[in-house]
Amino acid sequence: MDDSNPAIQFDERGQCNCCRDALARRPSEWWPGPEGEMRMAQLVEHLKERGKGQTYDAMIGLSGGIDSAYLAHLASRQHGLRLLAVHVDGGWNSEPAVANIESIVRGLDIDFHTHVIEWHEMRDLQVAFLKAAVLNQDMPQDHAFFATLYRTAARFGIRDFLSGVNFASESIVPPNFGYPSIDGRHIRAIHNLFGKSSLESYPIMGVWEYLWMTRARRQLTIHRPLNFIQYDKQSAQAQLKTIYGWRDYGGKHSESRFTKFYQDIYLPRKFGFDKRRLHLSSLIVAGQMTREAALAELSEPPITEQQIKRDIKFVAKKLGVTPTELIELVDAPARQHADYPNNLHLFNASRDLKTLLRASFTRGKQ
Q: Distance between CA atoms of 166 and 316, rounded to whole angstroms?
């Protein structure tokens, strides 16, 4: 990590508060030993019991990235779970990602549901977000995924979702970093201000639908099975390559061409933030990389100048703007998400209430 975020502080040993927090959480979030095996066995038994009489035991997201692909392999081939794989196509899949999805679905012989976002709507919304100059440019893609996820679960009567989010490679979260992609009011507000056409079919989930799905109806219970194993990305990649011919697409989350642009160009250039710091710090906390190796990797830029020019040209053409116009959007002064209408206070209140209830329940058991 570095001090680009004022909320990140370092002690006399050079360790930041984010890493200290992750190390403190590690015993209660990651079980790569016998306890993990027990938890995995209990989860599989629970899902198979709940899936009796149903078509599926659980749903899984499939992006073409390593985490979700390995999770599909683990759940289906190793534990025999009947999965419905869901993919939201926002128009930015890299060619290796498409090939990976196809090889995993065919290799595991699992059912696959894909939802394609109307490209002219996605393009208009993403240009609107670039004009808004806010931090979370992945929000249009991520919100569409979350909304589609819950609605697909309701449609197929599925109650459990297996998430590829994992402690080993994603444990570091700086304080006050990012913005919740589930805020549909924020999506509409930014699009109303900067969009040119209407959003007729883009899946927007409002706060009340979200609370109904997650708090009242409890449509989905989200599980993170990769936290029950010694999950190592390099090892997982080697296995998938051998079994399914899995193809590498570059850095973390670069299976989406837009996310690659966002992480490699937009964030460093507009906010002075290199997201590799989160990923590499997570690997250090997991004991899968040394600090020296991470610093050596960070001493090199995320991509070359030639790659920057190539990616800007590609993204600009997809979005219907010129490379010069895209660079001007990236270089425009940054704005805060709070500058635009939002429902962040409701999501924070819901989160705080959930935390309070969980703490009360825990105290009640003691």
A: 33
